[in-house]
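Q: Cytochrome P450, please. Structure only.
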Amino acid sequence: MPQSISPLTADAVDLTDMDLFTEAAAPWRMFDVLRRTSPVHWQPEPAPNKGFWAVTRHADIVAVLKDPGTFTSEKFVTLEEVEDDSVIAARSSMLEIDGLRHTALRRLLQHRFTHRAIAGYADLVRDLTVRTLDNALAEGTSFDFVSKISAEFPIQVLARMMDVPEGDTHKFVDWGNRIIAAGDSDYSDGHGENASGDGHRNLPFGSPASLELFQYGRSLAAKRRANAGTDLVSLLVNGVPVDGVPLSGTEFDNYFLLLVLAGNETTRHTISHAMLALMQNPEQLERLRADFSLMPDAVEEFLRWASPVYYFRRTATRAAEIGGTPIQAGDKVAVWFASGNRDESVFDAPYRFDVGRQNNDHLAFGKSGPHFCLGSALARLELKIMFEELLQRISGARLIGPVRRVRSNLVNGIKELPVEVTPASGG
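A: Structure for Cytochrome P450:
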């Protein structure tokens, strides 16, 4: 995709208009303009919100992420403004906690997500990949790639790690859609983008679907409590954080919800965007099919290209500067990972999809700082194995219908990707 040639100006950018995020080019045009002309940009918002600083350059994003003392996560990572401390406490997951408690909660499961630990899941991931592809291709060469592969595969992996019955995985996909993509009418429970006044203020993302997920997690916890299981739920419910303070019921609820959402969303949407990019760049698909030694580099390019999370928000704890722009205490600061992943000062030809790209310093998992994605090694393994297996089975693919994107400025998601694949000879 070429860089924007539109006469769009920074003052005309509206990062709060979710309809723009259903268009293929619109978000990138806005990011391009801001990086060039207003890299730390004040974005007004509709009432009752007050506006936020949009940070769009790679270096500035990294600086914010590395300084949680100045830019805290403790007033949420989305743009919703909540001043009620009781609501904040009820809804905070590990994403919205800083300091020693965040470290203690993270360490409860961190050992299960190290590179060495994740390598032990390689056979399981490959088996689930093969089964997912077998099922998708058994119905023919034309299908919706999202429902048959992207959404199906990562949740199956997570379900095994959590020891969840296979028949329940579709519930996780549904809950994730309804919680994360509440601004999309295909998924919404009717509470819209800002639910702070509709009776669900204490629920993550203001979504009533959180209650259903909580109830499911609590039922698992009740069965696993005081056992010697090694699944993620057993470790979570029976473990004691290193600070010696046991998880409260609310902390368990929110941790469980975060595992379900984070364990699915990033990989799911990256798989979809990677497949779309390979179809739009068939020479890159053939290049990768011909040389699987490129796969580690390709995975990093998939992540950069997809940018599955558009932004996370921080809140300034004190007066500061970002890129020379003064920020006041209490200001919201949104770091736009997707924009950083197209920063011309970091990436050569950032709108060129290149499966052999070197020194790929992308921000798909955040970068540095205490909130770097816990599941990054698992996501990389899933992406590597999925495309190794897929590209052995197909020699090409093409779109056979419109690409439908999630109406969200938080999640860069594709909800429908109708494809027709060409089976590889002998496959």
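A: Brief note, in case it's useful. The domain at 10-423 is CATH 1.10.630.10 (Cytochrome p450).
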